[in-house]
Amino acid sequence: MSDTAMDESAAEGEAADDPTRVAIACQGGGSHTAFTAGVLKGLLREWDDDHELVGISGTSGGAFNALAAWYGLVTGDEAKAISLLDAIWEDLSASSVSDRFVNDFVVGLNRLGSAGVPMLQVSPYDVPGAELGKKEIRETLERHIDFDAVPDLCGRETPELVVGTVNINAGIFETFTNEAVTPTAILASAAVPSMFEAVKIDGHYHWDGLFSQNPPIDDLLSVDADRKPDELWVIQINPQEREGEPTSLEEIADRRNELSGNISLNQELRVVERVNDWVDEGHLPESDFSKVTVRRISMGETYHCSTKVDRSPGFLAELMDLGEQRAAEFRSSTPPAVEREV
């Protein structure tokens, strides 16, 4: 065998031994993202050397999970990331008697509103103490994560961290990556306009990322070639398909909520599919563009839209257990060459 052939053979052998680069995108959906925490825990518990996490993104509640998993990994290992996910969701749950009362009241109001019952509409700017929720979220995150250390933790050897928001003033999607992921950016990603005041960042006001990239995809792919993922795993909260015709006001509200949460995700995944097709057809050089396999981890269960604000410990535990179950099913499944469900 010639020296050139030997070199090519060695290079192919090294490439075959390289781990599969993976990016994980966590869709937002309020309390339903406890499911995402369960999925991440299940994936991390069985993580192996055949896979390398090169990026993780999230929107709204998905941003909490992405941040917790990322921080746990870069400051420790998979076990620390799992422990951090558990700790943050335990703190976010409505555990005290007073908190449970408020939680049940809010869930009840949301259920009545979705059923068409006339409700008093009040701006969060007109409600005393409306910012207490954001204050509690900030305190919870800062209790477990040293945000001052985040800039020094970012680098080529750590996964890309991306959080999605919408810039109200500019009317555009806006993401915050790596060292720009601050408590304020996380709060902006979770600022539901009907519940919280907008969050001001760099002179512009921001709302919940559910109105934008849910979750961010492009930032995970627009990286250097050696950090671009081979596979994109999407943890999807909102069901893609649903049988039958929604007829009651509650069914209509549920489906509208699900569809609005999937619109931006499906648009971004169609772009990925189109690039994959162009590479296959030879319209794009493989030296500059590479195909990305898209795999979804779907909740597979439907819950009333009002439960997206339900922080009762039992409900969150149910969602986490479901997430772990879906992670186990995902690990045991054989990945397709290219996922077409986009």
Automatic annotation (TrEMBL):
PROSITE patterns assigned: PNPLA
Biological processes annotated in GO: lipid metabolic process
Cross-referenced InterPro entries: Acyl_Trfase/lysoPLipase (IPR016035), PNPLA_dom (IPR002641)
Record keywords: Lipid metabolism
Pfam family, one: Patatin
Residue ranges constituting the PNPLA domain according to the UniProt record: 24-221
Protein name from the UniProt record: Patatin-like phospholipase family protein
Origin species: Halorubellus litoreus
